DNA sequence: GCCAACGTTGGC
DNA sequence: GCCAACGTTGGC
């Protein structure tokens, strides 16, 4: 069973659209300089899914992505302290879910996003994942491996 | 642009 | 090992 995460970025710096343009290979999620966030990335498994949240501009969950490479040394870090994972875009949400909507939903009151907005890589429970997907108008990439073309 | 909250650093 | 000071993040 895959775990769920939420990762955020300022769209000015790195947006979901940019990640999408990287295709299946994805892109290294580097630049994280926070121990909690790093530890969360270390815990990620291949195939784990994550929401892409745009901070500052937009303040909304805009897409779903997947872990395609396990935690490895951050190429932009000389000290060897920091790690990153590679992510690829899976699906752009039919309807972005804003921070306001998340805060308004009692089911999501315990989300880390609400309580610790500064953590850039955070875990999401299965229930929260399902709820945000429902609000976004998607079934959530994980639940439809049957859909082959 | 401001400010509150948090994490990290460094002096003791 | 504690805690004050500082820097950064991110919502408003």
From TrEMBL:
Pfam family name, one: EVE
Signal peptide coordinates: none
InterPro entries to which the protein is assigned, alphabetical: 5hmC_binding, EVE_domain, PUA-like_sf, THYN1-like_EVE
Domain spans labelled EVE: 3-135
SUPFAM superfamilies hit by this protein: PUA domain-like
Record protein name field: EVE domain-containing protein
Annotated organism of origin: Hyphomicrobium album
UniProt lineage: Bacteria, Pseudomonadati, Pseudomonadota, Alphaproteobacteria, Hyphomicrobiales
